[in-house]
């Protein structure tokens, strides 16, 4: 078995291979970059490690701002919570770098050391000597002593092993090891039917579309399967005989399901699909055990949610299977059961919560397996009949769980800070997974010539939905930097962030009252509307007494408009009779500065912005070309609208545009430097002086693929 290294400092254990940090056996929530930063500090302790050395180790050949390192150190300090002088305390040496106080003890071992200690290279060799023949009484005593020693040894061994890992007994032999360590992002792993190879999507950098690669688990030499082109490839799925891979190919305006033989033969286009997946980070395709059918998430129209379709390979015909409710993202990531009779899938109700479902492959009612209202990033069938593995944030961080109908989910030892994508080989009990970073941060785009970008708010979590206060002195935004999504307020330059909401509320977009002292938002699950008020000392939050989606204050501050339940409703403040201003589906409300019109989209994937005249009650389409599922990625100005749209020849890349209401002319403001996942990043916000725009950008993702052998 592979040698592994544990670094001990204070109550912490750092596994240098699996990049896992434990405090007294319990996992510490740290993203990969933070763990790698801690690793080089621990390996070099008690020496001072320069900033340049840390950046080179963690980010390799990437050019990154020193703020990334500073943020990593801050994240580690918060997670370890070590006092000055403690073994886990990180000292700062201004202008030079950092050091971990230590001492750090290093232990090399294998899983075999814990399971077969007598055969371990660390075990003492047997001692040669005479073997007298015992009498019955001495033999009995010897047997008793031997049994006692054996029992004590087993107890000590078990305690030591559980102290390090606290894993279920069934996973005591699980061994973690990296499969890929490539630059860029490797994701969507798919293991071959015989468990010997893995296919994955590799996006080397933002300037190159992702392709599909294959690699034996026994070496580190990947081979490109897809041709080099302008197309983006996704969702590899192995044929049951292991000779072909089905996948998705996205062009600038078209998309197909394609089958690629591993031997280099001609490709086969099976069927056309919707030419986008809206930045949804799932593997969208699976191949049936009998080889006759593919399962895919797709939709016939942007006005309909995604649902599960069966694609019959003999004819290319698509048959709809699931029927999700309206006004949600829909059903994604289908997986066939081992006997091919059942399909499991993830139902995405919202960007922040999904649930796991199953249904017969012949159709019928869907069975809901989870009720957590948390994120589910991937799922697959395990080697236990009727049991699924699912990557979920049900206990805060992402972890792999065993899910079975009618039973409480049980956790496994695989966990991460960000969403997990995985595949499982039932034949070899091998789990292969990747962790997909999703680190949006708030940026300010100044309308200089040329336009210039400035990062304003950043953390190792997700920072999004920024909104300038009416006087431009503060920013309200949504962040999960505290471990759960909440509303925060900072100064306009990002300084002094203060948490506004707390507890069980799952807030959506914050919007300012004209006074700049109150915010309104809704709970993403219950749709209850909340008001948060700053009294100069602290923020207080109360339920407004009504429900809705994406509420906004009227410019006079005397009422709130909210969407939901097939209507847009005005709610007087502090109380009064609600007034329906439009019987229409609506999301992502915005109000004109003069209060005479409301702007909204009708569906989650709608690319059209509609304007409602509050005087006449008439509505009209005002803009075409929004990024699907980025329904609030726009900001109103007195004379037009700034919005995020796709580039003419690439649906995967975005740019900021401005539509002038009077001339109806659209002009380019700036290209986004990198692709962005559209879900949950808006709305954008125009500064009161109209000289800058708050937007959201993603840090460059970097992820590798890991293997867990003997995973049960």
Write a structural description.
The protein has a five-stranded antiparallel sheet with strand order 4-3-2-1-8. Strands 9-56-31-30 form a four-stranded antiparallel sheet, with no helix packed on it. It has three domains: 4-109, Arc Repressor Mutant, subunit A, CATH 1.10.10; 169-436, Neuraminidase (6 Propeller), CATH 2.120.10.30; 440-629, TolB, C-terminal domain (Neuraminidase), CATH 2.120.10.30. Helix 1 (32-44) crosses helix 2 (51-59) and helix 1 (32-44) packs across helix 3 (66-80). A hairpin with a 2-residue loop joins strand 1 (4-9) and strand 2 (12-15). The longest helix is centred in the first third of the chain and has 30 residues, at 136-165. With 712 residues, the chain is mainly β. It is built from five helices and 56 strands. The model is unreliable at 111-172 (pLDDT under 50).
Distance between the termini: 17 Å
The structural domain count equals: 3
Oligomeric state as shown: single chain
Mean of residue pLDDT values: 85
The chain-level structural class is: mainly beta
Helix content range? 10-25%
Query: Tell me about the biggest sheet?
Result: 5 strands, antiparallel
CATH topology of the largest domain: Neuraminidase
Count of helical stretches: 5
Number of strands: 56
CA-atom Rg in angstroms: 28 Å
Question: Beta fraction of the residues?
Answer: 35-45%
Anisotropy-based shape: globular
Low-confidence stretches: 111-172
Question: Order of strands in the sheet with the most strands?
Answer: 4-3-2-1-8
CATH architecture of the largest domain: 6 Propeller
What's the CATH H-level superfamily name of the largest domain? Answer: TolB, C-terminal domain
- What's the level 1 CATH class of the largest domain? Mainly Beta
